[in-house]
Design goal:
The chain contains 19 helices and six strands. It is mainly α and about 450 residues long. The strands form two sheets. Strands 1-2-3 form a three-stranded antiparallel beta sheet. α11 runs antiparallel to α12. The radius of gyration is 24 Å and the shape is globular. About 40% of the residues are buried. S-citryldethia Coenzyme A binds next to α18.
Length: about 450
């Protein structure tokens, strides 16, 4: 069925009337299950000759999705309808993966089979280890992740045909299974320690901690409190609607690029400090503030329009209330700090006081700037033993299932076509070439 025929099948729940150049146009309104209605402007350009203009996509729905719902005013986050706090409290990360990928929580039999499949694909092709030696030891691990994940398409030729559902499924399983291994290898390489192979008897989170912190010379026992915290952190970061990196994965996938290349593009986008890089930037900021008495100076800087400084870990495009993940992150932060004996970490004191001051400051209240997931995750990840430059790598491990679920949904969407935005052109009108000897400085 053509896109136009599929389009004609969409349900209309009313109309918006638009007047352009003296003519009136009725635009279909479409309702979702939850959240704002959308005004369908698919035919706007062909009808009116006008584009819409929405840099940053603050008012634009790029797709229809059934995966994740966010209510920014109420601070709600649902994965396939299930509240994030319930999943983080009661589920495993692979249960969340199954839910995001297939739409329902797995039965015991489904979960066992899925876990088996993932476990069987946690190793990487042994030749991939050679990629790491091409990087400087002090390369940022996100640079390594972009390179090595993109290179997966050079190894797994039997799962890059996006039109073959079985190959799409195999690529999904491989991506989710191998990300912790690739990430742990990036960490080990950066500290000059040998790579540690995955252990099939460990669950996803414990396996990752083992691959990061075990050494060949002695047994490594995973601390269950830290493994539980890792599980929760992975669940909290798994998906988040059409955020910048997910939109990057969808856009890359809309051209037919293979899933490994799309996820590599998502990792590159996530790296930015305004997005996934904020957890690294937030901890660096807290360390720079250093003590409670220096907080007012930084809060004033964050409010100063002429100062590019922002409070990292604060604010969100969608959440104009407390990020529901930040609350769970704060609780996890206390648990981990207590477990590792850093309950009195001065950085935590700075974070708690900064949050208290910011939440009572008129500027932050008026602009609805609340702590987001990245505000407490940095302190927690540091307490788990990770260096700051690994924080966004952990975010990428967790978000891989979200990227893959959204990529699969986009590929299967009958309305899907290559994403190709237009522009408001304000450059030069047409003009003729001037030979160099006739040009004026
Ligand atoms: C993530 O989209 C997602 O879902 C992302 C994410 C996910 O799970 O995928 O949730 C993960 O990326 C969380 C966000 C992490 N980033 C940070 O913590 C970096 C600091 N935050 C800001 O850079 C900012 O708040 C953004 C990028 C998060 C949101 O930017 P917006 O929506 O474009 O908002 P904005 O930059 O237009 O800010 C609105 C106003 C501005 O003031 P005015 O121009 O209106 O006068 O608020 C101010 C901003 O200057 N502002 C801040 C601020 N964040 C916004 N001022 C001080 N400190 C801040 N942190």
């Amino acid at each position: 069925m053509s896109v136009a025929e599929n389009y004609a099948r969409l349900r209309t729940d009313g109309e918006a009337t638009l007047e352009v150049g003296g003519a009136t146009y009725d635009l279909p309104i479409r309702k979702g299950t939850l959240g704002p209605d959308v005004i369908d402007i698919n035919t706007l350009y062909q009808d009116t000759g006008c584009f819409t203009y929405d840099p940053g996509f603050t008012s634009t729905a790029s797709c229809e999705s059934k995966i994740t719902f966010i209510d920014g005013d109420k601070g709600i986050l649902l994965y396939r309808g299930y509240p994030i706090d319930q999943l983080a409290e009661h589920g495993t990360f692979l249960e969340t993966c199954y839910l995001l990928l297939y739409g329902e929580l797995p039965t015991f039999a489904q979960y066992k089979e899925f876990k088996e499949r993932i476990t069987r694909h946690t190793m990487v092709h042994e030749q991939m280890t050679r990629f790491y030696t091409g990087f400087r030891r002090d390369a940022h691990p996100m640079a390594v992740m972009v390179g090595v994940v993109g290179a997966l398409s050079a190894f797994y030729h039997d799962s890059i045909d996006i039109h073959d559902p079985e190959q799409r499924e195999m690529a999904s399983v491989r991506m989710i299974a191998k990300m912790p291994t690739i990430a742990a290898m990036a960490y080990k390489y950066s500290i000059g320690q040998p790579f540690i192979y995955p252990k099939n008897e460990l669950d996803y989170s414990a396996n990752f901690l083992h691959m990061c912190f075990a050494v060949p010379c002695e047994d490594y026992k995973v601390n269950p409190v830290l493994a539980r915290a890792m599980r929760r952190i992975f669940i909290l970061h798994a998906d988040h609607e059409q955020n910048a990196s997910t939109s990057t994965v969808r856009l890359a996938g809309s051209s037919g690029a293979n899933p490994f290349a799309c996820v590599s593009a998502g990792i590159a986008c996530l790296w930015g400090p305004a997005h996934g890089g904020a957890n690294e930037a937030a901890l660096t900021m807290l360390q720079e503030i250093g003590s409670v008495d220096r907080i007012p100076e930084y809060v004033e800087r964050a409010k100063d329009k002429d100062d590019p400084f922002r409070l990292m870990g604060f604010g969100h495009r969608v959440y104009k209330n407390y990020d529901p993940r930040a609350k769970i992150m704060q609780k996890t932060c206390h648990e981990v700090l207590d477990a590792v004996g850093h309950g009195d970490d001065p950085i935590l004191k700075v974070a708690l006081e900064l949050e208290r001051i910011a939440l009572s400051d008129e500027y932050f209240i008026e602009k609805k700037l609340y702590p987001n997931i990245d505000f407490y995750s940095g302190i927690t990840l540091k307490a788990l033993g990770f260096p700051t430059d690994m924080f966004t790598v952990l975010f990428a491990i967790a978000r891989t299932v979200g990227w893959i679920a959204q990529w699969k949904e986009m590929i299967a969407d009958p309305m899907q076509r290559i994403g190709r935005p237009r522009q408001l052109y304000t450059g030069s009108a047409e003009r003729s070439f001037v030979p160099m000897d006739q040009r004026q400085a």
